[in-house]
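EI: anyone free to look at a 130-residue chain?
SC: sure, send it
EI:
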Amino acid sequence: MSRLPDWERRLSAYLADDGRNCFIWGESDCALFATGGAAAMTGEDRVAHFRGVYTTRAGSARALRDLGKGTLIKTMNALWEPVRPAFAQRGDMVMVRQAVGICMGRDAIFLGLDGFERATRAEFTHGWRV
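SC: here you go
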């Protein structure tokens, strides 16, 4: 998978969509938000089979077990190339406190229960190349 030539514009448009800042399990939770950003940049949605399948945290865990590789990290590692968090670039996906977000350079943006949240690069624990 490679980013489209206009990936920066696509990512900006994706993040500017006001409807994206509403956390809903199975529709726009943290992982689906971040992977949606990857889909916007590449034109390929690698997690389409997860969308609309669950509506709770427990349902998310079941979906990861049944449709993924068992855990969020293992599933992400299977779908995207892992990268050391220190080397994550703008547009890559990163993890902080079991949430997946989009690296914006010096920090990352995440979709939390109350809308967008930010975390610093020092907090990144995992990363995936987009």
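EI: The longest helix spans residues 30-42.
SC: 👍
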